[in-house]
Amino acid sequence: MLIGCKEASFGYEGKPAVSNLNFDVNIGDYLCVVGENGSGKSTLISGLLRLLPPLGGEVLIGEGLRVSEIGYLPQQTAAQKDFPASVFEVTLSGALGLAGARPFYSRKDRARARKNLEMLGVASLSRRCYRELSGGQQQRVLLARALCATTRLIILDEPVSGLDPLATAELYTHIERINRELGITVIMVSHDVGGALRYASHILHLMREPLFFGTTGEYLATPLGSRFAGGEGL
Fold it and tell me: What domains are there in the chain, each with its CATH number?
């Protein structure tokens, strides 16, 4: 087990937004967290990142993983999309958590940033201002940034939200490569059920508590899974 929850609940001002969480994510898994708006998906992500302490139960982290070693691609705000920095600077900032007490980026940090931009097909944009990019390009840069923080686990919160079909397909392809070729574990929150079922190895379906947790194949064999796979959507 790399990360998971045991009888965990998370919420705000003492009121749970999601509860009764019991699941494990193992090395190499690709877990997609699905559910309607208000079901607790983003609250769970805050809990896994230790940005929100559990109201009950616990978050389990194994294999020597540190929270600072988790790569994170959050939902973007309008202000963040308009951030006036270069693509390379945005990408390199992902290494901050690994820098520790160092007041500067190392040569290794810079090489990793360049490598990740190249892998995601946006190395030619390194000198461009981030806010000048398309939505799909920005998401690929943020994915490169997340990879600068980790070689083990990335957490993605609605990474394809607002993207056109081509940009969505391209981003999914990159995420799949990261999981399968680099062996990096993926936890992704998504409203895109079709994409989740196509790529994920495991599904966690929430409605303020788990309705299902297991493999994608097991999910499709349930009435819940077949209903959402049949196009009723989230």
Answer: 1-65+152-234 (3.40.50.300), 73-151 (no CATH)
